[in-house]
Amino acid sequence: MTSAVSVALATTWLLGLLMLPLLGSLLRSGMPGVWEWLIANVVLIVALPLLLLRGHISDFISIVIANALVALAGVTLYAGFARFLHRPARWPLLLFCAAMTVPALAYWRYVVDSIPMRVVVSTGFTAAICIAIAILVARNRNMGRARYPYVATIGVTVMFATCQAARGIYFTTLSHVSDALTFDATVNVVLLCVGAAIMPVLLMCGMMMVHDALLFNARDAVNRDFLTGALSREGFASVARALLTAADRSRSSLACLIVDLDHFKSINDTFGHGGGDKVLREFVELVRSTLRAGDALGRMGGEEFVILMPDIALDHARSLAERLRNAAMRHAVVTDNGTCTYSLSGGLAIRLPGETMSQLTMRADRALYQAKVAGRNMLCVDDANPG
Ligand SMILES: Nc1nc2c(ncn2[C@@H]2O[C@H](COP(=O)(O)OP(=O)(O)OP(=O)(O)O)[C@@H](O)[C@H]2O)c(=O)[nH]1
């Protein structure tokens, strides 16, 4: 093996060692896929010295076993991406594919001794793994997240697959292939060096995805109310700003509905604080099933919630609010201290031209107050509404 190729493989081996503590530190995150990536890296760390020792140890170990271990590292890497993206890893199929490289490589070494065919087997396998990862990431990337880690992963996997395929095709075009000749060729050295970068680069892509997911989860935890999962005050404020800007830009309407569960203190007194908590949680589920996809729900505190409905006419907003009030009345929550039924009061306001969010919510709040004063379990609409 030429020194350039040896240096490339030895560098990959060292990078593999450096990746170990980095991946190890991510294990604590509990993110799915990190264990598989760590194992893939370890398998490659074992395989690379066997490849480097070609000529010094038996061909069966340095060719057949070493390349089969590289294939095993590849499928384990794929399984890591699958698990991270919440897709099944399909281990039996992956292990079967990796195991099939053993008879293929043994055949092209001991029955027909063909370097090009061995290269075709190993590069073809690696190219297939890269394409499979690219498809997996493209199909399952989380649309609400940053694009960069996903697009970068798809880009490099396609590039790696192309280089692997090019190396395989290059070898099939060679006529008198001897080990020294083929390994010395510049094209082969360059493509092999690119191939040596696959594992470290894809592990870095995986780590970028994990960091992105951790950042997303941390932001989400700040923006969500712990008990109910509705938006917290802070989370709601930023969503409300975005909806207001969008409404201004598209000159569309925005409805604000504030709802407050009636006599919640007596619900707590009768069914316990745990029972009250369950009512709040189930109420939020109920709201979610009633609202449209683009609507926003925030918990303002206690048993008071605010709902923003973009691009909606007053009549439609009123019927949605009434539907919610009726659904709440029919909703029975089973608690440890018996079955609880409850009602809600609501105040609805449609945004006036140029109105700020606090002016809009103040009018909805005023309507809610009227509903409470008028006896509860009803919906009031602010009379300053347009139309
Ligand atoms: N279980 C539970 N109770 C809460 C939570 N936050 C606030 N509360 C309770 O909600 C109750 C609100 O009571 P009030 O503000 O008097 O309102 P209310 O009894 O619903 O009366 P009206 O709103 O006038 O119909 C208080 O007893 C609070 O302790 C919570 O997270 N969980």
From TrEMBL:
Protein name (database record): diguanylate cyclase
NCBIfam families: GGDEF (TIGR00254)
Ranges annotated as spanning the membrane: 6-27, 34-54, 60-81, 93-111, 117-138, 150-169, 189-210
Listed InterPro entries: Diguanylate_Cyclase, GGDEF_dom, Nucleotide_cyclase, Rev_trsase/Diguanyl_cyclase
EC class: transferase
Entry's EC annotation: 2.7.7.65
Limits of the GGDEF domain: 252-384
Keyword Coiled coil: no
Keyword Cell division set for record: no
Catalyzed reactions: 2 GTP = 3',3'-c-di-GMP + 2 diphosphate
Swiss-Prot/TrEMBL keywords: Membrane, Transmembrane, Transmembrane helix
Organism, as annotated: Dyella flava
